[in-house]
UniProtKB/TrEMBL annotation:
Transmembrane residue ranges: 30-47, 67-85
Organism: Gulo gulo
GO biological process, alphabetically ordered: mitochondrial respirasome assembly
Domain HIG1 per the UniProt entry, residue ranges: 1-94
Keywords carried by this UniProt record: Membrane, Transmembrane, Transmembrane helix
Keyword Isomerase (UniProt): no
GO cellular component: mitochondrial membrane
Main subcellular location: mitochondrion
Name of this chain's protein: HIG1 domain-containing protein
Superkingdom as given in the UniProt entry: Eukaryota
Keyword Zinc: no
Compartments where located: Mitochondrion membrane
Length: 99
């Protein structure tokens, strides 16, 4: 048994959680943007929960879900457009004589 109970250390050669998160962020930078947008929308809508007026709770929650999903879908679409740009347009501009 280890004397340092409660702390998990990755085996040798594996990334820590923060290193893995940073690597994944560099590979696809819009995933954290989409996640941040979802969290920001959810936090704002929860904050505005008291001032919803006569709107039913279920309607308020549906609007919150739709707005959060719109942020996530928007980030996915931006990522797809960026990937298509990087793979097709930027690559064809770099290699004009290969065709």
């Amino acid at each position: 048994m280890s004397a340092n109970k409660g702390w998990w250390a990755p085996p040798e050669g594996e990334d820590t959680v923060s290193q893995k998160f940073l690597r994944k962020t560099r590979e696809s930078p819009l995933v954290p943007v989409g996640l941040g947008g979802c969290l920001a929308v959810a936090a704002y809508r929860i904050y505005r929960l008291k001032a919803r007026g006569s709107t039913k709770m279920s309607i308020h929650l549906i609007h919150t879900r739709v707005a959060a999903q719109a942020c996530a879908v928007g980030a996915v679409m931006l990522g797809a457009v960026y990937t298509m740009y990087r793979d097709y347009i930027k690559r064809s501009a770099q290699d004009p004589g290969e065709k």
